[in-house]
Amino acid sequence: MVNLAHPSTFLVTTLVSRPTLSAFLWHALFANHEMLLRTACGRYHPRHAVGCAPRVYPIHITGLRHKAGRNRLSRPRILGRGNDYGADQRRAAGNGRGRPIPKYRCVKGISGVFFSRGAMHGMAVHTGAEGAGNEHCPWVGDVVNIDFLTDLIDLSARIGADPLLVQGGGGNTSLKRDDVLWVKASGTWLAHARERDIFVPLPLAKVRDALRHEDGEARLAQLGSALTLRPSIETSLHALLPHPLVVHVHSVNTIAWAIRTRAQAQLATLLDGLDWAWIAYQRPGYPLTRAVAQVLSARSPDVLVLANHGLVIGANDRVQADALLAEVERRVAIVERVAPPSQPQRLAAVNDLHWALPGTESVHGLATDAQALQIARAGVLYPDHAVFLGHCAAVVGEGESLSQAVERTTADSGVAPAFALVPGAGVLTVPGLSDGAQAMLQCLALVALRVCEDDGLVRLGEADVAALIDWEAEKYRRSLVRTHN
């Protein structure tokens, strides 16, 4: 990194390619003339002005070129304003006008800040000297440290890689900073936080204002309509909570308690001494947010246990969130039963439809463990169970083939099953089952092997399941899973 003393210059980060950085160093150390490196981005539609949801445009900056008569850095050139990074690369390579460096991103409407993919990982961020309301993004002025996003990314990637906390595209995290809410995009995976841009920025004040209206969910959708990725379906919950950092996970251990009839009383003992609250089941999104708002009217707990859903942690920073999440997980931990192994020969014998085996061996426990089998065949336990795995599984009876079991289940429920349970033998899945659904199937096994029917389990009703499956926001999330596959 190079820091020039002149007030109108700024840090050059490792985002700059090595040849370009070498040229810049040569100019900085040996040239006698003043140098100025600037970045610019293209025009923006008026709807992307301040107060509206920001739009992200990828742009490219060419390498340095020597100008006749002056030793200075050339003004960067905009190579494209669409989202097709590959097309911009091809245009750059074909016209011989310089070597583009990795993509840069400019967010319009958030205090004139220029964000880059590198900046999202803790590098320098350039901010305009003028307001962001101008038709063009302003020239770069000073440097802002954006390490807070690095913390969010690292925390998200770490918990997203733990199947006991997050499965597939489930769970979400957020950070509030300078009246901007950075929240995970719907359908993206927390586990991919370090490799992909999974967070979207929203004007926090406008999000919170939307929540004051009966049609708050529609207003919130409108705020995010200009973004390439939709904000998480739990955006309203993240905005409502006062904590700067919010983590929502589908903790297997928490769910294993939260689906029980006596969950609230049992958790009162387990979480004694923590500032926590129990939230009765509501559909994710705006209904859940309104239920949480009733609790927040009296106090602001740091831990929320959502019935038949999961866990929410509110904290001031990553360190505090890490510590609180670890403490809750320690207290609610349940030892998983060891299920008998699968029986491949028996599975092959009934599999006349040539269905696939699950991606994880532990999933077979849903059929080889007697208690788990009873739980898995009895109904839906939590939202992502319904959204990704459907109303029910097919159960292959004694002397029955897979095709017969699937036909019978489809006739009874009106929906074709995504997976089948072969009692004592294992699990079969419909061909092409998405990675997200595979992750949810593993989650179901992890939960089912931690409880038994004698615990008194509460399942989602038919109306609850229908509200989830027919909800447009969940249909969108499922469509992204199919697209990614």
Topology summary:
Blueprint: H1 18-30, E1 56-59, H2 85-95, E2 104-107, E3 113-116, E4 124-128, E5 140-145, H3 147-160, E6 172-177, E7 180-184, E8 199-203, H4 204-210, H5 216-223, H6 235-240, E9 245-249, H7 252-258, H8 263-270, E10 276-279, H9 286-296, E11 303-306, E12 310-315, H10 318-332, H11 344-350, H12 365-368, H13 370-376, H14 383-389, E13 394-395, H15 402-413, E14 419-422, E15 426-429, H16 435-448, H17 462-469, H18 472-484
Parallel strand pairs: 10-11, 13-14
Antiparallel strand pairs: 1-2, 2-3, 3-4, 4-5, 6-7, 6-9, 7-8, 9-12, 11-12, 14-15
Helix pairs in contact: 4-5, 7-16, 14-16
Low-confidence stretches: 1-145
Helix content: 25-40%
- Main beta-sheet strand count, sense and barrel state: 7 strands, mixed
Gyration radius from CA atoms, angstroms? 26 Å
Overall mean pLDDT stands at: 75
Count of DSSP E strands? 15
Shape: globular
Strand order within the widest beta sheet: 8-7-6-9-12-11-10
Question: How far from one another are the termini?
Answer: 39 Å
Q: Supply the number of helical segments.
A: 18
Based on secondary structure, the structural category is: alpha+beta
Give the amount of beta strand, in percent.
Answer: 5-15%
